[in-house]
Amino acid sequence: QVQLVESGGGLVQAGGSLRLSCAASGNILSINTMGWYRQAPGNQRELVAAITISGSTNYANFVKGRFTISRDNAKNTVYLQMNVLKPEDTAVYYCNAKVFGSARQYWGQGTQVTVSS
Length: 117
Fold this sequence. Notes:
By secondary structure, the chain is mainly β. 0% of the residues lie in helices and 57% in strands. The chain is built from no helices and 11 strands. Strands 2, 4, 5, 6, 9, 10 and 11 form a 7-stranded mixed beta sheet that branches. A hairpin with a 5-residue loop joins strand 5 (46-51) and strand 6. The model has no long low-confidence stretch (mean pLDDT 95).
């Protein structure tokens, strides 16, 4: 089992910045990819960014150039630096961890990000 705990959400004005953190605990050696997804009301959950244990990253087109994902393997923590935030970035952001060689994945409880115009 893997437990994921997010922090760093909140309310920010358009153009502002937030940094999300996700700390993993438990069977962390099983984790390959960690990432962030988001879900706005009435929408499906969508990938924002992901990073493998080796540091390879993948970003959704709508955040390229604005968001940066990073990972501290020593602290078992993944970060999402969000800059130039837009009202359409408003959503609940979920941390995700995928297990090596398996379809198993884990989710955090989610953290609300609200961007006011």
